[in-house]
Design a protein that fits this description.
Structural class: mainly alpha
Strand content: under 5%
Distance between the termini: 67 Å
Order of helices and strands: HHHH
Length: 95
């Protein structure tokens, strides 16, 4: 038997949405804090093979699919993170 309910009778107040997708419209990417001289020195000495990035996301397809996304700063942050790795952007005294 087909559903004969009218939209105002639905058991939820509005049609479902993709909350996570909606959040990308207003998401603010974290600020980019430059590495200190000490951090740069440590970074240069790390074995890049140990920290290589592996993801099931096809980054070029992701870039293509988000080409017209209105929140370019956030998309740029995601693409840079996927390509180069994400950083915690910590600044301050390290103990």
């Amino acid at each position: 038997m087909p559903n004969t309910r009218q939209p105002e009778e639905l058991p939820y107040p509005r049609p479902p949405t993709l909350q996570l997708v909606n959040c990308t419209l207003t998401a603010i990417p974290p600020c980019n804090i430059s590495l200190t001289a000490t951090e740069n020195e440590i970074y240069r000495q790390l074995d890049s093979n140990i920290f290589s990035i592996s993801t099931p996301i096809d980054i070029e397809i992701f870039a293509y699919l988000t080409n017209n996304h209105p929140n370019r700063p956030f998309i740029s942050y995601l693409l840079k993170g996927l390509r180069d790795g994400f950083r915690f952007n910590f600044s301050g005294q390290r103990t």
